[in-house]
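Exercise 3.2. Students should predict the tertiary structure of the chain below and write it as structure tokens, then compare their answer with the key that follows.

Predict this chain's 3D structure.
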Amino acid sequence: LLPPFVELMDASCSNSYELRTQIEMNHMKLSSTWLEWFRLQWFNGTC
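Answer key:
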């Protein structure tokens, strides 16, 4: 089961900046595993 932000990211990378901001804002709500996974995807140029 993927967090909502992942589904949104997959749906449209045009809002990647907003997504990243939202993730930073909700840092404490995400497990470290999901946060690291996202950072890997982000810096690997998924979007």
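Discussion points: Residues 9 and 16 are 7 Å apart (CA to CA). The chain is about 65% helix and 0% strand.
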